[in-house]
Design goal:
- It is a single chain.
- This protein has one domain (about 1-65).
- Helices cover about 15% and strands about 25% of the residues.
- It has one helix at about 20-30, and strands at about 1-5, 15-20, 40-45, 50-55, 60.
- A 5-stranded antiparallel beta sheet has the order 1-2-3-4-5, with no helix packed on it.
- It is globular.
- It binds zinc ion.
- Zinc ion binds near residues 14, 45 and 50.
Amino acid sequence: MTRSRACPTCGTMQDFQKLDNAEKAAVRERKGERHYVDDLWRCTAVGCLTYFPAGRLRDHDLLPEKFRREAAVATEPE
Ligand SMILES: [Zn+2]
């Protein structure tokens, strides 16, 4: 399931999806054990780490660097 929102980082409309378990755990590590993570949405654009709580896009924040999605790298044949 995705939601289309104007991403404040990308500056364009992007698909957002709910955080997976690893991403939720990382947010809790930063924000505290009791931080509510069940309704957070992340931008699915390559290279973007923006997430926001449902309904509160202006409260957006960034996921840790390890969740950055890289563009698929085309390897040159040897
Ligand atoms: Zn984005």
